[in-house]
Amino acid sequence: MHIYQLPISLYSFKLRLALKLKGLDIELRDPPGGSYRSPDNLAINPAGTIPALIDDDLMLTETDSIIEYLEDRRLGTALFPSDLKARARMRMLSRWVDLRLEAAIRSLFGHVAPVGRKPEIVASADKRIMESLVLIESAMDEAGPFMLGEKPGMADCGLFAGLCWLDALRRPLALAAMPGARMARMVAAMTADPRVASEIGAYRPLLAAWVAAKTAPAD
């Protein structure tokens, strides 16, 4: 079993957090040809996305699908609660993060560089990010510290990854959207978890370097 991924990819980071929390040491590889768009990678993974898990004759894309596959195989520490309704809420929150929050954040990637930046698109994305943060926070557990209680789960991995990107983009794009108290509590708890500390410590500098390269003055 191995996983094709890239260090800076938001969804690869989400999956790496999940692997660390589960205590799994699955081999990580760059996509064939060095890019998820390469012909070599598309021959294996016609969806052309990362991460992708290869397990014998199974090729599986979509981060949540990969995590749920590992859950179904009962590999490592569970990232889903045992209660049926709580499991459904975990899936719902993870989809909200992916389809609302992270979609809005990723729409800003092409506008980080000052050249070609469209302020109206940035402002619209900023508004959608704030709306997503409010919605997600409203469904988080009151006591916490994680989204659904005392233990981190799949949705926490996605939300944490998205908030790392939001932090990296906030200053160069003058974003107003800010996470609320429950999300700040989750970020603190995740950052303090020794299982993921090294992964988080390595990821944030990658984002800072990416933003710095995009915003550097042209020669």
- The DSSP helix count reads 8
Specify the structural class.
alpha+beta
Q: H/E order of the elements?
A: EHEHEEHHHHHH
- Poorly predicted residue ranges: none
Q: How much of the residues is beta strand, in percent? A: 5-15%
Major beta-sheet overview: 4 strands, mixed
Overall shape: it is globular
How many angstroms does the end-to-end distance come to?
Answer: 45 Å
Strands in their spatial order, largest beta sheet: 2-1-3-4
Helix content: 55-70%
Mean pLDDT: 96
DSSP summary, beta strand count: 4
Please compute the radius of gyration using only Cα atoms: 17 Å
Layout of secondary structure:
Blueprint: E1 2-4, H1 10-22, E2 27-29, H2 39-44, E3 52-55, E4 58-61, H3 63-72, H4 84-106, H5 119-138, H6 154-173, H7 181-192, H8 197-215
Parallel strand pairs: 1-2
Antiparallel strand pairs: 1-3, 3-4
Helix pairs in contact: 1-3, 1-6, 4-5, 4-6, 6-7, 6-8
Observed structural traits:
about 220 residues, alpha+beta, 8 helices, about 55% helix, about 5% strand
Report on this model:
The structure is a single chain. The protein has a 4-stranded mixed beta sheet, with helices on one face. Helix 4 runs parallel beside helix 6. It is globular. The protein has 8 helices and 4 strands. The chain has 219 residues and is an alpha+beta fold.
